[in-house]
Amino acid sequence: MSAPTADHHSITDAIVANAARSTLPYQQAHRGTDFGTAFWFNDLVDKQGDTETVRQYLVTARAMTRYDIAEVRLRPELSTSAMSANALAMLAFEDGWIPLGDSGVAVMPAASLHALARRKRWEWTTDEITDGLAATAEDVAGIGGEPVPAYVLGHDVGPDRTDRPQAVVVGTVVRDAADGPVRWDGTVPVGCVGAPVFAGIHLDGPQFRLVCLGVVLPGDGSQHPVATFDRIRSAVRELPEPSSPADSDDPASSPKRWWRRAR
What we know:
By secondary structure, the chain is mainly beta. Helix content is 13%, strand content 35%. It has four helices and 14 strands. It has helices spanning 8-19, 111-119, 137-141, 229-237, and strands at residues 23-28, 35-48, 51-61, 70-73, 87-90, 98-99, 105-109, 148-155, 166-174, 182-185, 196-202, 208-216, 223-228, 260-262. A hairpin with a 7-residue loop joins β9 and β10.
């Protein structure tokens, strides 16, 4: 796998155009620590003609979910109408997440977030990492010992600890063995752990195909593991078949329930 030479701007533009509204910054409530980024993912369950049925989740690093109360920062562009606040308080936060085995990733069914918005009389307007954008096993297999340009789309932490500006962070991904783990080599700003990692697969001429490789996990210094979407997709599809979502503000109240839609 390789990205078009010296074409960081084109790939960054594609990330912003396709995924700017996919990320949510969150943090442990009432404390100045434990900042993370989550993002929306649509798992394609079925496709019949022009109709797609999906299960929707938030995805993040499991290590960043281990506390009781979280504050999720909101942005005006994430709603079709005016929001009632600039943040959401999420109780029983850890209980709302489902760990995906030993991948280092956890997912939260999105049903409760949609129910909360309906009760507050607004509606989410998001970009999602779709099945077509999420990397396949073949995409991941193309990463070898030669560093590949890659990009984290996450939310840094501003000076006042409440401002969470979105940033595209440039680095590389590599793996030392053909069947080894993928790792991010570069800076991961405070607050960007759990964010999606993107790369551009070089096609003919200057063209490329944008893929979301996976989730950047906590690491040491400039070395961070990346949980790749081939494993994430497989683990999500092994989860139990859901029942209808409960209309609850508390994501922990129905941790294995899902929100579905047809496009």
